[in-house]
Specification:
Blueprint (H helix, E strand, L loop, with lengths): L1 E5 L8 E5 L4 E3 L7 H10 L9 E3 L5 H4 L2 H7 L3 E5 H9 L21 E3 L4 E3 L4 E6 L8 E5 L4 E5 L17 H12 L5 E4 L9 H9 L4
Parallel strand pairs: 3-4, 4-5, 5-6, 10-11
Antiparallel strand pairs: 1-2, 2-3, 7-8, 8-9, 9-10
Helix pairs in contact: 5-6
Length: about 210
């Protein structure tokens, strides 16, 4: 699996490009640094207009504010959980937290609703959707079994977890999410924020559970 990281700038989330026969982007940042993001993608010898799929791990503006830019320059399909898709389709500035950033949220066309256990086939690369509520009610992660890699969104970082004190957060659900992830064989973690865990991913999930004790 080929993964390129665009580290979050300012309020942007991390953005991950997964390349295969189908090219997929995990999250899109705020959109405030979109020109910089495009330059980074071109630096990976990837043309942004060739993007096929964009998956939001959740609907918060720092992950989904840039969706509209990618939808405008490519024919990519936007995919998200049902709860996230509902907020994105409405352009809900409260649920997406766009108003917290002093920004507007454009209503978006979500092409496909993702449910727990759904499989996204990119070619040789296969990603399984995992429901990981807690940071938001509609949060999801993606798991690649060959490399035991988890695209965790804001469920877990290398040294922490996403906030659980926001309007749509559920601390009890986050606890269950971390318990579920701890039972998986996670070697790599590609988080929504901060550095990638290239090995010993399960260790960071175990550490993350202590944040809710």
């Amino acid at each position: 699996m080929r993964v390129d990281l665009i580290e979050g700038q300012g309020f942007d989330s991390n953005i991950f490009l997964v390349r295969d026969e189908t090219n997929l982007l995990v999250d899109a940042g705020t959109g405030e640094n979109f020109n910089w993001v495009k330059r980074k993608l071109k630096g990976f010898n990837f043309k942004p207009q060739n993007l096929d799929v964009l998956v939001n791990t959740h609907c918060h503006f720092d992950h989904a504010g840039g969706d509209s830019d990618f939808l405008e320059i490519s024919d990519c399909k936007l995919m998200a959980s049902e709860l996230a898709a509902n907020a994105l389709r409405r352009g809900d500035e409260k649920v997406t937290l766009a108003e917290n950033f002093g920004e507007k949220m454009k209503p978006l066309e979500v092409s496909q609703i993702l449910h727990d256990g759904n499989v996204i086939k990119l070619g040789e690369t296969t990603l399984t959707v995992i429901s990981t509520p807690g940071h938001t009610q509609g949060s999801i992660s993606l798991y690649e079994p060959e490399e035991k890699a988890l695209f965790s969104g804001d469920a877990v970082f290398r040294g922490g977890i996403g906030r659980t004190d926001l309007p749509s957060s559920q601390p009890a659900a986050m606890r269950k999410t971390l318990e579920k992830l701890a039972k998986m064989d996670d070697e790599k973690i590609y988080p929504g924020r901060g550095p990638v865990a290239g090995k010993n991913g399960s260790k960071y999930i175990e550490q993350a559970q202590k944040f809710l004790i």
